[in-house]
TrEMBL record:
Transposase IS204/IS1001/IS1096/IS1165 DDE domain span: 1-234
Classification lineage: Bacteria, Pseudomonadati, Thermodesulfobacteriota, Desulfobacteria, Desulfobacterales
PANTHER family: TRANSPOSASE FOR INSERTION SEQUENCE ELEMENT IS1557
Protein name: Transposase IS204/IS1001/IS1096/IS1165 DDE domain-containing protein
Species this protein is from: Desulfosarcina widdelii
Residue ranges the record marks as coiled coil: none
NCBIfam families xref list: transpos_ISL3
């Protein structure tokens, strides 16, 4: 199972995706816990068994978490890697914004700290190398290395993952960088779901691919006038509907 929300103007459409079959099972307006309730009712109405769902992947939205816990108590939650790393990227960027007020050397460097090193152009990599030298003693550089070390968490084995995460958490919370400490506390409050990745190995990658198809269809249609029309198109594009007539 996979779930997320997509913005359309001032509206949101939440998608519930079957990761095994790479298809949208249910789409509904909204982004709160009631979307999970509607999915459960739709699943039951179509002969599905909510109790049979063992794994769900989502972002760290409190509304979705409470909805899953209430309506799918048997399911384990895995927090999507992209959204976990987004928390850290936002913290690094906050450190940079605060520090750049007094350190003009950071001007124009925002995307250097947000990209992975292997995605940087040669000129960007050279600029980053200059900014991370020890003599500059940039807080942003320290925050960046805390983020990079967290990314290594996903390269651990299931046996060593929690020990690694505990050591990282201690480092981050003793960094004297308030945005990084706050990000670490956020991860701590979602500890089990972060570690669950080593059991479920699921993320929102399939959903991102489906969303690309939806966005392409919206662009061709120059948008959809109503939410109902958008949801209908989502089912046609990504629902893998079967239109075979009975014989």
């Amino acid at each position: 199972m996979d779930e997320t929300s997509r913005r359309r103007g001032h509206n949101y459409v939440s998608l519930f995706v079957d990761l095994d079959e790479t298809r949208v099972l249910f789409a509904t307006g909204g982004k709160d816990a009631s979307t999970v309730d509607r999915f459960k009712r739709d699943l039951t109405d179509h002969g599905g068994n909510p109790g049979a769902i063992e794994e769900m992947c989502c972002d760290m939205s409190p509304a979705f978490i409470s909805g899953v816990e209430k309506h799918f108590p048997e399911a384990h939650i895995t927090f999507d890697k992209f959204h976990v790393l987004k928390v850290l990227n936002e913290a690094v960027d906050q450190v940079r914004r605060e520090e750049s007020k007094d350190r003009p050397v950071l001007k124009g460097s925002r995307y250097l700290w947000l990209k992975n090193p292997f995605n940087l152009k040669a000129s960007q990599a050279e600029q980053l190398e200059q900014l991370t030298i020890k003599k500059l003693n940039l807080k942003t550089s320290r925050a960046y290395h805390i983020k990079l070390n967290f990314q290594e968490f996903y390269n651990q084995t299931a046996r060593t993952a929690e020990t690694y995460l505990k050591k990282w958490y201690f480092w981050a919370t003793h960094s004297r960088l308030e945005p990084m400490k706050k990000a670490a506390y956020t991860i701590k409050s979602h500890w089990d779901g972060v570690l669950r990745w080593f059991t479920s190995r699921i993320n929102n990658g399939i959903l991102e691919g489906i969303n690309s198809l939806i966005q392409a269809a919206k662009a061709r249609a120059r948008g959809y006038r109503t939410e109902r029309t958008l949801i209908t198109m989502i089912y046609l594009i990504a629902g893998k509907l079967k239109f075979d007539l009975p014989t």
